[in-house]
What does this fold into?
Amino acid sequence: MNADGPVTVLAHGLGGSADLPIPFTYALIGAAWALTFTFAVVALAWRKPRFDPDKPGRELPRWVTAAVDAPVTRWAVGIIGLLLAVWVALAAFLGPQNADNPLPGIFYVLMWVGLVAVSLVLGPVWQVLSPVRTVHRLLGGKSLRSYPAALGYWPAALGLFAFVWLELASPDPGSLAAIRIWLLIYLAVTLTGALVCGARWCARADPFEVYSMVVSRLSALRRNRDGRIAIGNPFDHLPSLPVRPGILAVLAVLLGSTAFDSFSARPQWRTFIDETAGSAATATLINTAGLLVFSGVVAATFWLAARATGGVDHEQRRALPGQMAHSLIPIVVGYVFAHYLTYLIERGQQTVHLLLGMDADVNYFLSLHPSLLATLKVGFVVAGHVAGVVAAHDRALRLLPKAHQLTGQLAMMLVMVGYTFTGLYLLFGG
It folds into this structure.
């Protein structure tokens, strides 16, 4: 509310191309030129790999690592996370069963978008905050068997898809009952997995922990080989992303779902759904198919681009998509902030006020300055893609034979330009 009356805020803070301070076509052309110029510069001036995950960062004082790793700190943060989960559960079941219930905001804003911001600054925080990990530790921390290596991150990819399906394809994503059921299934599956396979299940199958881990690879905070907490170049940290089965699927779901979120908000898609779907079940099936297509296109195009190089044997070619997957992380983070920035800041304020029972005004600064917001969105998208191009180029120098280091990147460059065009077009509604 402001002095002139209520402020209407779109769910995800999506604006239109009219909000841009320059014509939309110029923004698209400028973004493509930015990527092309970046690729040309690094291709000509960047002949040897510079980023190394084994390169130590600048160590913070020893007491910082000692304080963070102290059992009392770990237990305290874990218990706080568990108490917060109990508090949220009480609010979900005993709070007002209407728009004043904070559960949707906690679920879709703080747990999904807020987790990205916190992990980008502090590292993989869900590993410490996870209530499932805390309960598992309270029960003794034992396991019945080892986690199957072949599963990799596939369970996490399925969990992430289940989350975005609830938000983007289910009949009533804002339903308190639907969110409660999703969270109960998540807790049951994750806790059962932890009891059977131990903490490794949480590290590789918990969708929120894997999401936090992936984003944390772009954080300046990291640990050196000796365990000391240090600050270093995020581009050195990016290649440390573990290459396991399903990692590309995780990133494809994250990027594809954000693109589908923009696409599904377009009037043309809504009209198509209204005219085609005769029931809520049919609409859900169509939206589910759309979500699968978007995630599948991201996975397929990146997989093909990574493998489109010569001079490597069959085994190395198979490994390239996973070894290049970290270059998608800046793009994912850029799209998350471009797409959900106002959602995080403004709806996040509303959620905290509801959770704490506060009667306070929400600051709608970004929504009240659409040109600034639109510029920030374009900046996040372009910066994410430029960082992705740089990360992919450096990795190619390390992995590809010298004769194919340049030509082997052309397909990836074209794919990233395509991602940029498509992302901006969907973000600003064409």
Summary: The chain is about 65% helix and 0% strand. The two ends are 30 Å apart (CA to CA).
